[in-house]
Amino acid sequence: MPLVALTGGIASGKSTIAGRLAAHGAVIVDADAIVRDVQQPGSPVLAAIAAEFGDRMLRPDGTLDRAALGGHVFGDPARIAALNAIVHPAVRAESARRFAEAFAADPAAVVVYDVPLLVEARADDPWDLIVVAHAPAEQRERRLVELRGLTASDAAARMASQVGDEARLAIADVVIDTSGDLDSTLRQVDRLWEELPAEVRRTEPAEVSVPRPTLE
Fold first, then answer.
1. pLDDT at 205 over 80
2. Which positions does UniProt annotate for ATP binding (predicted)?
């Protein structure tokens, strides 16, 4: 019953990796989806956000105005910390509930937590394996412009708002190199799935866990 953390910078191909693992049978728990769920109207999290940042963060229908909230906290460490203090505990509790639910349904399940902010929030949790999707920052920035339609300045700002690649790579047990074509990425994910039991054994607490090379 391995519990795998999957992380990566923006436009790193993390969702592609998660999708391939799901196709192999992994249970994917999506941190972004949990964030949206715990911020639904009537939730304690949404009430706390409105109390902390003002009712202007809510749309007329009572839902969270994510664009307004993002614009309000972006680039302000104190505001970001205040928001994280509200959201992260709820996400942690709900993710733990979903992990337990998946393992209760199938004790042999491979549960993958798809989480962008692993380094920032949950690097020290007891993961059996940490997988990092990685491509050079310049390439990811081009993807944001060419594939997602961001301006160059917006792409650079989004990149700058995240933790650096070095911090993610420093905690990686496995690195999936997504700088090549799609087939290259998928081959590495397929190999990870095949070698997952051995990878988990190599990262057991009795051993020293160090970043390993990519699977390609």
1. no
2. 11-16
